[in-house]
Amino acid sequence: MRSTRPSAARGRNRRSLIAATGLAAALALTATACNGDKGDAAGDKPAATTSQGADTGAKLPGDIADKLKEHGIDPDKWKGGAWKNWNKDDWLREAKDFVNPVIDGLWKPERMKSAKDPNKTVQSKDYASDQGVTDPEPEPVKAEPEKTPYHENAAPVGKVFFDSPEGSMVCSGTVVKDPAHPGKSNLVWTAGHCVHAGKNGGWYRNITFVPSYNDLGKSASQLQNATQQEVAPYGTYWADWVSTSNEWINDGGPTGGAGAPYDFAVLHVKPEQGTKSLEETVGNALTVDFSAPSVPSVGSMGAWGYPAAPPYDGLLMHKCIDRPGRLSLGSGLPTMYRIGCTMTGGSSGGGWFRVRDGKTVLISNTSIGPAENTWLAGPQLGSEAQQVFDTMSEKYGSQ
Description:
It is a single chain. By secondary structure, the protein is an alpha+beta fold. It has 10 helices and 18 strands. It has helices at residues 14-26, 62-70, 75-79, 109-114, 150-153, 228-231, 246-251, 278-282, 295-298, 383-396; strands at residues 39-42, 144-145, 157-164, 167-176, 187-190, 205-211, 237-245, 252-253, 256-257, 265-271, 287-288, 301-305, 318-322, 325-327, 336-340, 351-356, 359-365, 375-379. It has a 6-stranded antiparallel β-barrel. It has a 6-stranded mixed β-sheet with strand order 2-13-12-16-17-11. Strand 8 and strand 9 (256-257) form a beta hairpin. The longest helix has 14 residues, at 383-396. The radius of gyration is 19 Å and the shape is globular.
């Protein structure tokens, strides 16, 4: 999967610079701080206490244990490491199958540092450049490091960790507002390929979100023997429900495939320890814009994330700001937004933001990019995305 490439405004014109300033300002800490069928929501029978708090070694809640047993999985063996077994029979694929029990202390600092990017690289033959729909390829925009501490400059942004058959993986994500729970959202926006493998696989495991990861932007050498507080200043949040599109589940592939225009997901999370909501903890959250505006009306937009593939190491948050163009993957598919950006894998799932009516809103997320790491593409968020989001907010948000 391809991660977004953060970059500073290209300085094309004054309007772009103003937009960049507005985007940066709106991501900062705010007074919120604590002083049918298109959507596939995991799951139909929610595991309400999957990650209610730290698991101290006691038995899993009954509904979680029962759900694992339904699939022939021994709950005690699962917590003891059986989740590493990726037999076809073990791969939980359907919405109702999703299970993500808290394994206390699994995501230690060193394990987070070693997580790899789930690269989604699209080849030029995979997208149509001659349809009169795809705009000219954008000039590369160099990703710019975000200012530290991150919680004061990009409070809603963090990293999404998960386990796959290839090992520990990492994406990026954004805290978004939950209209059903004003000021107390536990929702995180990311990419579909950060939670589900698509048509040839199922749900990933041990999915967690870490807001303001490595808040002070320390280097690898400075993070030797790092404490949990240094890399996860606001704690670790486990996904107890996950929702992505049926299009991603049925059509998503290693290079995005026909599922790429629907490559988005929403997590509902609970803290590994404590009870305070995610939004209250980090102090900010963004509204999701489902208007799917046409490219000419958007102006500048910015992509934020933690690129992990070379030349980046996944430790630092970056951003890119550019004017978007259109990318078409096929005549029967919605066009995607595309911006110049040098971010690599690991920034996948990271939010794309624009200023609307004086406020910064989330308008897309990083999905795919080319092997040369010169641009990023993200889905337009229309009715399909809104249905996925509304299902999560209304049906699971209060659990």
